[in-house]
Specification:
The complex is a heterodimer of chains A (96) and B (409). The mean pLDDT of chain A is 93. In chain A, the strands form two sheets. In chain A, strands 1-4 form a two-stranded antiparallel sheet. Chain A is elongated. Chain A is of the alpha+beta class and 96 residues long. In chain A, a hairpin with a 4-residue loop joins strand 2 and strand 3. Chain B has 409 residues and is α/β, with parallel strands linked by helices. In chain B, a hairpin with a 5-residue loop joins strand 9 and strand 10. The longest helix of chain B has 30 residues. Classes of the chains: A alpha+beta (96), B alpha/beta (409). At the A-B interface, loops of A face helix 9 of B.
């Protein structure tokens, strides 16, 4: 989490969350990375809806979808559901 | 000493508990029936049906659900009570740990009953002893009066901001739960004044701000979700600290209650009887202590220096109080109304011998497993144990350190 971990005297009791969950970057867990092909994409916006982590959003300026790689766990649901195969899952560390 | 006028009622242990819960102004009770605890919630549902309390009563389909309902109610800041025994407590096992981990100050009465198989509805301590490491405070009572008094104290202890742990008040099945006794009861106002409203401390919320430690849509917090190798250990360390604090708070609440009621049970953690100059002594939890005291009286009349230490609070273990109280005892019998199969003795024996290790003059210590499944422990059998201790002193030798009292060969 990038910060010095707190001791038992500092943290609240009962596991109460004292920092926002956005600090916990679950993208660390990812094995496969979704790669988006904007030429194939029809902008149907199905992928933001099926993403269980809310890690895909529509950027109105670029008129394109964007992945929040800090939170995407690489589950691959978006790639599986994309009707035009515009999302490809690539192993982390490998080239497209 | 108290000037409050008290009403003496003929109550069995379960009814005494139910009355104490009624007077403690409890918000939520969720429970599932099981002998010999049944009378507690049965009586309490009568109070509800008769409009004597405003408690929300939740009938659940199992003890697992009952304690889950209590946990969530308690997390919203409600004063919460439940009761169980034997297999019912065993079914709660998982949620016992969740409750203490979530620091929910629930009070639960346990009518100590044997575990199956074979099925047995009578008294032994197998059920609650199996849960002694679940993070709950455990108070074992000697009689129905103490059951009544301890329930009232338990809410104060559990809800104290330095503690915030659930409390089990354990009473022996049938010997206490179903046996009528004269019980002195306080007026409702005196009990409510003693307990007061539940205090809700502040904790850090998810934005790092101070918020009340309760589930409330106006100040949303998340209690007990996930902590892995990074934070789980720290939370368990906090629970240990709360247990250590509880030693102080149990004594403090016990003393304050003594001022209100005029009744004391030792120092609230342990109770000694003729122990000061005793050469031979027993350690015991629960109602058997009453019988042992009678035997000690008989032995004292014969000039035998016999005594007893009753362990009222098993969790947290009053380590230094026990150590100090047993100084000077030369031969000690630890009484266990449950067994740790293959564990070389019962749970109370393990704890007491653990306390005695490293003391300057460790006494001879033997363990007696007794009374399983409700088997009676009569005076002559207890007398036999003190005679065994005298023989040990004479021969200065322990032939067998784990023994079974009252089982047929």
């Amino acid at each position: 989490m990038g910060q010095k971990a707190s001791g038992w005297k500092e943290i609240p009791i009962a596991g109460v969350c004292w920092r926002p969950s956005t600090e916990y970057q679950t993208g660390d867990w990812r094995t496969f990375r979704p790669i988006h092909d904007s030429n194939k994409c029809t902008k149907c916006l199905l992928c933001p809806m099926v993403c269980p982590d809310g890690a895909i959003k529509w950027n109105a300026e670029t008129e394109n979808i964007e992945f929040a790689y800090a939170f995407c766990k690489g589950c691959g649901i978006c790639a599986n559901e994309c009707p035009v195969d515009a999302i490809q899952m690539v192993r982390e560390g490998e080239e497209v | 000493m108290t000037t409050i006028k008290q009403n003496t009622l003929a109550l069995n242990g379960d009814e005494a508990v139910a009355l104490a819960v009624k007077q403690s102004d409890v918000d939520v009770v969720a429970a599932y029936p099981i002998t010999p605890q049944t009378i507690i919630v049965e009586k309490f549902s009568e109070y509800i049906a008769d409009g004597e309390v405003e408690t929300e009563f939740v009938c659940t389909e199992s003890e697992h659900s009952a304690l889950s309902a209590c946990l969530t109610a308690s997390a919203t800041g409600a004063r919460t009570f439940t009761a169980s025994a034997s297999a019912g407590l065993a079914l709660m096992h998982e949620i016992l740990y969740v409750t203490s981990g979530c620091r929910a100050p629930i009070v639960m009465a346990i009518a100590n009953r044997a575990l199956s198989a074979p099925i047995n509805i009578h008294c032994d301590h197998s059920d609650s002893m199996a849960e002694r490491d679940s993070g709950w405070i455990q108070i074992y009572v000697e009689n129905s009066q103490e059951a009544y008094d301890s329930i009232i104290q338990a809410f104060r202890i559990a809800e104290h901001p330095d503690v915030l742990l659930p409390v089990m008040v354990c009473l022996d099945a049938f010997f206490l739960s179903h046996t009528l006794e004269n019980v002195k009861t306080l007026p409702n106002e005196a009990v409510q004044e003693f307990i007061g409203d539940r205090q809700i401390p502040l904790v850090l919320g998810h934005e790092g701000e101070k918020v009340p430690f309760k589930l409330d849509p106006k100040n949303p917090i998340t209690i007990g979700p996930l902590a892995l190798y990074d934070y789980y250990f720290e939370h368990k360390r906090q629970q240990e600290e709360a247990m250590r604090e509880a030693l102080r708070i149990i004594r403090q609440v016990h003393n304050e209650f003594a001022e209100t009621s005029g009744r004391k049970y030792g120092n609230g953690l342990i109770e000694t009887y003729h122990l000061e100059d005793a050469e031979i002594a027993t350690v015991c939890v629960g109602s058997t202590a009453g019988t042992i005291k009678t035997v000690v009286d008989q032995l004292r009349e014969q000039g035998v220096k016999a005594g007893i230490l009753r362990l009222r609070t098993l969790r947290p273990l009053p380590f230094s109080d026990i150590k100090k109280a047993l100084e000077g005892v030369k031969a000690l019998a630890v009484m266990d109304r449950s067994n740790s199969f293959g564990g070389h003795g019962g749970p109370v024996f393990h704890e007491i011998r653990h306390v005695l290790y490293g003391t300057h003059s460790t006494p001879f210590v033997v363990n007696y497993i007794f009374g399983l499944g409700g088997r009676d422990m009569p005076q002559n059998a207890i007398l036999g144990i003190y005679r065994d201790l005298q023989a040990i002193l004479k021969t200065e030798r322990v032939v067998e350190d784990v023994r079974f009292a009252g089982v047929r060969e």
